[in-house]
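ARCHIVE CARD
Drawer: 12
Card no.: 0347
Subject: one protein chain, sequence and derived structure
Cross-reference: see card 0346
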Amino acid sequence: MGHRVILFRGMNTGGVRAPVTEQRAMAARMGLRNPRTLLASGNLVVESDRDPIALEGEVEAAMQATFGLRIAAMVRTTAQWAGLIAACPFPAEAVAHPSRTLLMVMKEAVKDDVPDALRAFAVGDERLEVTPGALWFFHPDGVGQSKLAEKAAQVRLTGMGTARNWNTVTRLAEMVGAVP
């Protein structure tokens, strides 16, 4: 049986709350095996062979029914997760500064005008690259004060996605056997 990485957008931010124990219970009720969470920020790993796109809709419906939350879910297989990691355009930076290297997993393909629109907000040595299904960011001075990070979080600019720092990306990889 394969694994699925399920990422929720905006979990435990702005009043969006769903306790991890209840997330795991919800996944189990959905027939997803061995549900595990990482941190309390919207990272759920399950054993399943369900189609990722179909599972996204099922998980979103379950979140609505269970928690009353309309929250976007992005689902990736182990192979897809490994592919995202392999495509990291900032490998040296990811190792040296894992909390400043971010992967934004996208629900749909990145629109052609998004990268240049976002790069206009980059300051100093901040960088942004696009890989299939993802936006990658490197914030050498941290994410907290970054205008680029602030703008990237706006769905109207980027489309629907959710970001994780390299520490979280690699910990999720370990959980699904896609160790970089």
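Annotation on reverse: The chain is about 40% helix and 25% strand. The helical segments are 20-29, 52-67, 78-86, 91-96, 114-119, 147-152, 155-158, 166-176.
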